[in-house]
Design brief:
Layout: H1 13-40, H2 51-106, H3 112-133, E1 136-137, E2 140-141, E3 153-156, E4 159-162, E5 227-232, E6 236-241, H4 248-266, E7 277-280, E8 283-286, E9 294-298, H5 304-307, E10 350-355, E11 358-363, H6 370-378, E12 384-388, E13 395-399, E14 401-402, E15 410-413, H7 420-423, H8 438-441, E16 459-462, E17 468-471, H9 481-497, E18 507-511, E19 520-524, E20 531-534, H10 540-543, E21 550-552, E22 557-559, H11 571-583, H12 587-640, H13 644-669
Antiparallel strand pairs: 1-2, 3-4, 4-14, 5-6, 5-9, 7-8, 10-11, 10-15, 12-13, 16-17, 16-20, 18-19, 19-22, 21-22
Helix pairs in contact: 1-13, 2-3, 2-11, 2-12, 3-11, 11-12
């Protein structure tokens, strides 16, 4: 509080005036602040009022602002997850209805026309699934994955294509773990097909243009660039900074430059005369002159020399007889040039793709890189994608189309003689194809274990003259296409060599041809067609694609169908299979569809449980965020807001003080020398 000194009357008038004015001004300023606090309700109007409290209030304001955004995000996520949960519940009900219908129609009672009529019911279910698949929420399509602005599923000629990518939206919810509010590829609706696995390691060569980021490195963990230590002839030590080197050529240039500097400084020859720092196979090569040696080591905490194969597992220098480092194993990437793929010894040609009932020929003869192969496949309009396997060596093809079995994906060589699909490892039916992948992952069932060997026979190869060659396959034979072919040929050979077998002049050989995806039986010595006959109700011939095959009279070859086709495994395909089986009066197919729908129901239930868990976490976090917000607002109020009663009392006191100051100043200024005589 401002006051006047008791000896104020004994000073000059100028000092008295200034002192009085200063006191009145301070009181007026305090009165102004109190008035502002009363009108705004804030004790701190600007940081200069109280720097410490103002800093705390600023931090609390920022926290509250972030909290408000998080609450909005949580509210949005809760709404999305609620719609997602209800949609999955409807899908689960449809799958259960389809399964119930399949179980009822698989019984002996229903007639063929009744089953055909029920197919229309299943088609109505497909329409409902399509509608639910394109369900929208406030964030867009709930099955839109990371791109919810585009409708995820579209009908294409009786099939259904899922167009979005793997993953989903993960908004900032202030939660330690991410929560997806949309589902994408790989979900119950957007499942992708099992791959046409690449069976051929393409073996990209190491070149100077190979990027360091594309190397698996000598230890298989990539290459971490940094500084390395170089020792020449055991005495001259230098450090080489490889940080920022983009390509293998950059690494070679820096190593050679460092060695050349030592050659100049020490006036000696270390490197050989011709291209001394280079690449051989998939390793770095350093040629030294005479008895010179070059050794590399990692500095403390580094790993660059080991990753580049310069520091060997058993430490030893590069010398004349030992110039090579460790294998750097470059990865296959989109940038990899076709001419660097060592597995391709001839130019690429054409590939034939069959999908959704259409056949398309893709010309890869002009492809210069792996990315151009990907683009050629994806722009062909057959709803497939080429991906690089995580092993960094092979390519795979993924099908995005949910279709009937006879419209599923098949890839084969064209008739141009280049065997491009096989050489790229992308042919769906090839010697290395696993039998376990046949029939969309169901494999092949054979008869075995019966004491009577004749009861284990799966099918007969009926030659043109009527001679029947029995084929008895076992589980041990069902490894790959090649193993089945070998076993069939062995049994044919044993039968024809057996003196007790019927006499025939016809020979037959199981093989794979370039232009037919399926087992091919080549017959010689007969103009009559070769056929396949099922034995003992074994499903093996049908599951191997032989029972549905046809005889080509031009080539005298029996051509089976492709049992290794690939398609999406989701609720669309299951309902399509059920509809086809009902229209075809196929009881076994109806039973299979029933099993698939049961599995789909279980998957939908599991997915709904995951979504429910997400929703619970969002609700808990929203509750906690609201509690945090209330606490922060309380603390901010204590720091920032004015105490109205205290400020009002102080305001009254300041008014009294100001009035007293003015009166005192007036009295003091009226005094003169005569008042003291």
């Amino acid at each position: 509080m401002s006051f006047f000194s008791s000896n104020i009357g004994r000073v000059p008038n100028l000092l008295l005036g200034r002192t009085s004015l200063s006191t009145i001004q301070r009181t007026s300023y305090d009165l102004f602040r109190a008035s502002g606090q009363l009108s705004t309700g804030l004790a701190i109007a600007r940081p200069s009022d109280d720097a410490v409290r103002a800093a705390a209030v600023t931090e609390l304001d920022a926290r509250l602002e972030r909290g408000e955004q998080v609450v909005r995000n949580l509210s949005l996520a809760s709404s999305n997850l609620g719609i997602l949960d209800s949609t999955i519940a409807e899908l689960s009900n449809l799958a259960q209805e389809g399964q119930t219908l399949a179980v009822a129609q698989a019984n002996v009672g229903p007639a063929a026309d009744e089953r055909s009529a029920q197919a229309s019911v299943v088609e109505a279910m497909l329409d409902s699934v399509l509608r639910l698949s394109n369900q929208k929420s406030v964030s867009g399509y709930i099955f839109g994955g990371t791109n919810p602005g585009n409708s995820p599923v579209r009908e294409v000629g009786g099939s259904y294509v899922f167009r979005n990518q793997v993953g989903g939206l993960t908004p900032d919810l202030g939660i330690g773990r991410s929560v997806q509010t949309t589902l994408g590829a790989g979900s119950v609706i957007g499942s992708l097909s099992s791959r046409v696995r690449g069976a051929q390691a393409l073996d990209p060569a190491l070149t100077e243009d190979t990027r360091v980021a594309d190397l698996r490195g000598a230890r298989g963990v990539g290459v971490a660039l940094g500084e390395i230590e170089m020792i020449i002839d055991g005495t001259d030590v230098a450090q080489i900074d490889l940080t920022g080197a983009d390509s293998v050529g950059d690494v070679l240039d820096r190593i050679e430059a460092a060695i050349r500097r030592i050659e100049i400084d020490e006036n000696k020859t270390v490197l050989g005369p011709t291209d001394p720092v280079s690449i051989e196979d998939e390793k770095l090569r350093i040629d030294t002159a005479g008895a010179s040696t070059v050794e590399f080591r990692d500095i403390a905490g580094g790993r660059t020399a080991r990753d580049l194969g310069l520091e060997r597992p058993t430490p030893s220098p590069f010398a004349g007889a030992d110039p090579l480092g460790e294998d750097l194993r470059p990865r296959l990437t989109k940038r990899t040039p076709i001419d660097s793929l060592q597995a391709l010894t001839a130019p690429l040609g054409e590939v034939v793709i069959e999908n959704n009932g259409f056949s398309t020929t893709i010309d890869l003869s002009n492809a210069k890189s792996v990315s151009e192969i990907e683009s050629a496949f994806e722009s062909a309009g057959v709803y497939v994608e080429v991906e690089i396997d995580p092993d960094g060596e092979t390519l795979s093809v993924v099908n995005r189309l949910s279709s009937s079995q006879n419209k599923s994906l098949s890839i084969r060589d064209a008739d141009d003689g280049t065997q491009t699909a096989s050489r790229l490892g992308l042919r769906s039916f090839q010697p290395a194809t696993r039998i376990a992948d046949f029939n969309f992952g169901r494999g092949v069932d054979v008869l075995e274990g019966n004491p009577d060997p004749s009861l284990n026979v799966d099918f007969d190869i009926v030659l043109g003259d009527g001679v029947q060659i029995p084929i008895d396959l076992s589980s041990a034979d069902l490894t790959t296409v090649e193993s089945v072919i070998d076993e069939i040929n062995q049994q044919i050979s044993d039968f024809l060599a057996d003196p007790s077998s019927p006499t025939t002049t016809i020979n037959v050989t199981a093989t794979i041809t370039d232009t037919n995806n399926g087992f091919t039986l080549q017959q010689t010595g007969s103009a009559n067609p070769l056929t396949i006959a099922q034995r003992n109700n074994s499903p093996a011939a049908a599951q191997l694609g032989l029972l549905q095959g046809t005889y080509n009279t031009t080539t005298d070859e029996f051509e089976g169908i492709d049992p290794a086709r690939v398609r999406v495994n989701n609720i669309f395909t299951h309902l399509i299979d059920l509809s086809d089986a009902l229209r075809g009066d196929d009881v076994f197919g109806i039973q299979l569809a029933s099993d698939q729908l049961r599995a789909a129901t279980d998957l939908l239930t599991d997915t709904r449980a995951v979504v429910g868990g997400y929703a619970r976490r969002v609700e808990d976090e929203m509750r906690q965020e609201e509690d945090r917000s209330v606490l922060d607002q309380q603390i901010r109020s204590e720091l920032r807001d004015a105490n109205f009663a205290e400020v009002a009392t102080r305001y009254s006191q300041l008014q009294t003080q100001l009035e007293a100051g003015l009166r005192t100043a007036g009295l003091s200024s009226s005094l003169s020398l005569l008042d003291y005589l």
